[in-house]
Amino acid sequence: MWWPGLRSRRGEGDEIHVTASSPVGYRLRFRLHDLVETPRDRVTLRSDGDLSGTATMAFAPVDAGHSTIDVTWDVEATPRWMHATERLLRPVFVLAHDAVMRRGERALNAWLTSSAARASRRRRRR
């Protein structure tokens, strides 16, 4: 997987099992399922396990060859230990989340850049 710290594997049907490793040592395991695609502009799905809720990804064209993706997660972390320690560890959870998101953003940008570069080279060779 292109996102550092995330591992995924296919389940049955549209299920994807994900393990997200935080930079401070804990892991969250969750299942993505009930994928619904709206042609050309939206994908929604459900999550259960250590992250329970829904996600929506909305796609919008910006100009020729460019789009935006707006990702909205409405999830709750469900591990009991996280709820029991939330008052004390919330700043750590926030920092860990931010670090995981930054790593994912950097990796996605690198992947998109390299994919675009490969596509450009293929077009030039034709």
TrEMBL record:
UniProt name for this protein: SRPBCC family protein
